[in-house]
Design goal:
about 60 residues; alpha+beta; two-stranded parallel ribbon; two-stranded antiparallel ribbon
């Protein structure tokens, strides 16, 4: 159905369940990968608000506009 998240962002270290889901999505689904970025810190969660655009660059840099 192509309704997977574009990316998973975590303020802390990723948990094992979320890591497994990302890995299994890449294995089970054709042409699907879900990038994961963790350790963004709690300030990231307090800064990001509804309607903000989040872009993840190829090198893993997270940009919030």
């Amino acid at each position: 159905m192509n309704r997977q998240p574009a990316c998973l962002l975590f303020s802390n270290t990723i948990d094992s369940l979320a890591a497994a889901c990302s890995i299994l999505a890449a294995v089970w689904l054709e042409d699907i990968s879900i990038p994961v970025i963790d350790c963004l810190e709690d300030e990231f969660l307090t800064y990001v608000k509804d309607g903000m655009e989040i872009t993840v660059k190829e090198d893993g840099e997270v940009c919030v506009q």
